Amino acid sequence: MKNKESKEIRHDWSAMEVQHIYNQPVLELVYQAAQVHRMWHEPGTVQLCTLLSIKTGGCPEDCAYCGQAARYHTGIQVKALMDKEAVLDCARRAQAAGSTRFCMAAAWREVRDNADFDRVLEMVKGVHELGLEVCCTLGMLTERQANRLQQAGLFAYNHNLDSSEAYYEQIIQTRSYDQRLETLGHVRQAGILVCCGGIIGLGETIEDRIHMLCTLSNLPEHPESVPINALARVPGTPLADLPRVDTWEMVRMIATARLLMPQSMIRLSAGRSEMNTLEQAWCFMAGANAVFTSESETLLVTPNPKLEEDRMMFEKLGLKLLKKP
Ligand code: SF4
To answer: pTM for this structure?
Structure first.
């Protein structure tokens, strides 16, 4: 495991190596990850990213964890695509509150070449002009659509792998792992940065987590942003009754991701609302250096801490908000 001593980026991690890293005693794992984190990043800084659902619910996909899938009875209110001005107002408030990244999410299977996509392109352009890192998560993309987003000023595109290839079809049947990778390829080819991570607590094994981390860290270029999510158990979804993810599992995932992809931003994502300050502090110590926030105190449709609570946490931990480079 060479990353510990040298500023080397590797793309040839074996499952056995990753397993060895992941299964170390947790204090040793966190210690190594914290060392690597300090070699590549300004310690004590966290990027705030505002996530806005610009089109909510009614999605035709069957992702077993998702409250926005139309087929599950989750009681989530379906909302049509937002107006551009309302989105830009939200982006301005996010910027004033300290966010340097603004991510717009639409519950679509894929992007269609229609008036809604044209509206999203206008939103991307507007947020880009505010000087924010603008990100979108809109489902599958063609090469041409990725190019249009890039031309509009898109900085990053989020498309998660969710789990290992082997476990993926237990969670999602309406599209394949290869289609996920294909969209990521289109994003890269268009010159847009990649935001790609996964979720733990879906009923997967440790081996599945290790294989997902292997896939991410063996991509020709590491995703510049890697969200690590704990399952948010949404009533009405098939995974609603699974147990809460133990925080040490999140710490292990974050620390391993930090060691495998030292240069990436590791985003402590869904699951924070069930963690106290101490638990989140361990995640920051393990190498997480970004969190999501939103005005609605939800992460899309699941709970997320209030911005005020986050501010108090950052102050208590001595964490500073990352400024735009
Ligand atoms: S995760 Fe995305 S694609 Fe899957 S059901 Fe939810 S909104 Fe649709």
So the answer is: 0.94
